[in-house]
Design brief:
38% of the residues lie in helices and 20% in strands. It is an alpha/beta fold and 218 residues long. The strands form 2 sheets. The protein has a 6-stranded parallel β-sheet with strand order 1-10-7-4-2-3, sandwiched between helices. The protein has a 4-stranded mixed β-sheet with strand order 8-5-6-9, with helices on both faces. Strand 5 and strand 6 form a beta hairpin. The chain starts with 8 loop residues before the first helix and ends in a 6-residue tail after the last strand.
Length: 218
């Protein structure tokens, strides 16, 4: 944790809130950490890795913004499973088989409640599948802008704040990409196919959450 004497009121509030959420994580079998900015979060995330471990990640603007994905791709210290290199359906299936058994899986969370619950909405479900089971360690990096006061507020946040810009980024033909908020669609391009609420990790410490005192991702 940072020295509060050197923080702005907003930064101090982020740290206070993070500290209270981390206590809730501990009750749910989740390890929690707080970093004041993206540089510190990047370094913290890589500190979990061991030489020659297998590593992959889910789609995440947060991971890109902190520079983690570029660092992983440029490193020779790890065995990287990069799903973007799998093109055909057979290659994608083979790649997912590797990813789901990786040592470390990085992702963000679409929302996190003040009680320490993780809220994630996915299109194909590969990201939430790895969160639920498979990789030995799941490391989540999330900005404090993802915090909500309830599961219901978290779902609303994801569908109205996160999903529309993601749909635009991915060039998808969804109503939210056109009107800027959720239309509860079931279109072919819908990215809200799976809604997963993580209340607890059955394997203590398998899920690790790094909260960051910045606004990151969508």
């Amino acid at each position: 944790m940072s020295d509060k004497n050197n923080l702005t009121p907003k930064q101090e509030n982020y740290q206070n809130l993070a500290e209270s959420i981390i206590k809730k994580f501990n009750q749910r079998g989740i390890e929690g950490y707080y970093c004041k900015d993206r540089e510190e979060a990047n370094a913290k995330a890589k500190r979990f890795l061991t030489p020659d471990c297998t590593v992959s990640w889910g789609g995440s603007m947060t991971l890109k913004e902190i520079g983690l994905i570029d660092d992983l791709k440029e490193s020779d210290d790890y065995i990287i499973y990069d799903r973007s290199k799998a093109v055909t359906p057979d290659e994608q299936r083979e790649m997912f088989g590797k990813i789901v058994t990786s040592d470390y899986y990085f992702m963000s969370s679409n929302a996190i409640t003040i009680d320490g619950e993780l809220i994630n909405i996915d299109g194909n479900g590969n990201r939430v599948a790895c969160l639920c089971n498979g990789p030995a360690n799941v490391i989540i990096v999330a900005g404090m802008n993802k915090i909500t006061d309830s599961v219901e507020a978290g779902i609303k946040r994801v569908r109205n704040i996160a999903a529309p810009p993601n749909a635009i980024r991915l060039n998808l033909n969804t109503p939210c990409a056109e009107i800027g908020h959720c239309a509860d669609c079931v279109s072919d391009d819908c990215i809200c196919g799976q809604i997963v609420i993580t209340r607890r990790s059955r394997v203590n410490g398998r899920i690790k959450v790094i909260l960051v005192g910045e606004e990151l991702g969508y």
